[in-house]
Design goal:
By secondary structure, the chain is α+β, with helices and mostly antiparallel strands. The protein folds into three domains: about 35-200, no CATH class; about 220-275, Phenylalanyl-tRNA Synthetase, Chain B, domain 1 (2-Layer Sandwich); about 285-345. It contains eleven helices and twelve strands. A four-stranded antiparallel sheet has the order 2-3-5-6. The chain has a three-stranded antiparallel sheet with strand order 4-8-7. A hairpin with a 2-residue loop joins strand 11 (about 265-270) and strand 12. Helix 9 (about 295-305) packs parallel to helix 11 (about 330-345). The longest helix is centred in the last third of the chain and has 18 residues, at about 240-260. It starts with about 30 loop residues before the first strand and ends with a helix.
């Protein structure tokens, strides 16, 4: 059955990303990055068959509803296209290449296939076309904000795609993808996390989803726990509780033997699933703001969060930047915005 371990094959796919014929000069400078909103919520299907179920996931006051096209929901493997696009835009932001910071990207299909550890034969190009179609066709309605912007109308994960050139044997040359406002807002707000490159080598959709959840929730902490039933819901699984436990247990057995899940180990204790950091996700110095804020911004911060100890909020803001690997381009303005959001969620201190 899907998700069962296979004794005769290694748990990771072959590494196709570093072959000698790889010619994309800057692709490994563009670290793989995923947006936090879809890492936290079950936007992508983990089914290996076309998933045409409408799904709604609720967490407190937040909800996300995902509606498939006739070709099914976008899958966890389709997410590779988004990761590639997000990574390229973030690399442009970090390099100060302002002309490249836009929602529409144009790139070589071959570059994407190589960067995401996919095959570059005819089947690889066919799968890429299908992924673009599902990403464009899957519609989302949610009140989850990205970049402090709440989008309540339906939208796709990508607004559109174009295949600029295609060879006679069906292999694409150039692709143009326009990201949705939801995804592009997340990029501009730095609401993204760096992913381990071996994410693209994980065979099973459930393994990829478990890694995404651990990367978002465990992050740089030593340990994070979640109930088995809630984890099943966050994975977007339609399995019974018994079947989900079996699939998860098989992954845990394989990970215990090979430690193939990047960055985190997974164990099961009764009804509790435990993710533990392998110590490979340190907060990089350049991703934590250690500088001093302009004293004048504290006046605006007090106005934004009346009644709160502004220096306490500063410590919380710095901690939040580190946990979420956010680089504040304008620290003073970012801090004031953080204080305003803090007050809107909590009101005046009691």
């Amino acid at each position: 059955m899907v998700g069962d371990s296979t004794k005769d094959r290694p748990p990771l796919l072959p590494d196709r990303m570093r072959q000698a014929d790889f010619f994309v000069c800057d692709i490994f400078d563009a670290a793989p990055k995923g947006d936090m909103a879809s890492m936290q919520n079950p936007v992508f299907s983990i089914s290996t068959k076309p998933d045409r179920n409408v799904r709604r996931y609720e967490n407190g006051e937040n909800f996300v509803e995902v509606t498939p096209s006739v070709k099914g929901l976008a899958t966890v493997h389709d997410r590779d296209v988004l990761i590639f696009c997000i990574s390229q835009v973030m690399a442009a932001i970090n390099d100060g290449r302002n002309d490249d910071i836009r929602p529409t990207l144009r790139f070589k299909a071959y570059d994407l296939l190589k960067a995401t550890n996919r095959g570059t034969d005819g089947r690889g190009y066919e799968q890429l076309r299908a992924a673009l179609e599902r990403l464009s066709g899957t519609r989302i309605t949610t009140n989850i904000t990205t970049g402090n912007v709440e989008v309540l109308d339906g939208f796709g994960l990508i607004d559109r795609f174009r295949i600029i050139r295609e060879t006679r044997d069906g292999r694409m040359h150039d692709i143009e993808v326009t990201l949705s406002e939801w995804v592009f807002n997340a990029i501009n707000a730095r609401e993204v996390l760096t992913l381990h490159r071996n994410y693209f080598r994980l065979r099973k959709p459930l393994e990829r989803r478990l890694y995404e959840i651990a990367r978002k929730h465990c992050g740089n902490s030593s340990e994070w726990r979640i109930g088995l039933h809630k984890l099943k819901s966050k994975c977007g699984s339609y399995s019974t509780d018994k079947e989900f436990r079996r699939l998860l247990s098989n992954i845990i057995i394989e990970d215990t033997a090979h430690a193939h899940i990047p960055d985190y180990s997974v164990t099961l204790d009764g009804e509790m699933v435990i993710f533990q950091s392998r110590g490979s996700v340190p907060v990089r110095r350049e991703e934590v703001f250690n500088g001093r804020l302009d004293p004048e911004c504290f006046h605006d911060a007090r106005t934004a969060a009346p009644g709160w100890d502004i220096y306490y909020l500063e410590r919380e803001w710095r901690r939040w930047l580190g946990e979420n690997e956010i680089v504040a381009k304008n620290p003073e303005r970012h801090f004031v915005k953080f204080c305003r959001s803090w007050f809107e969620k909590r009101g005046k201190p009691s």
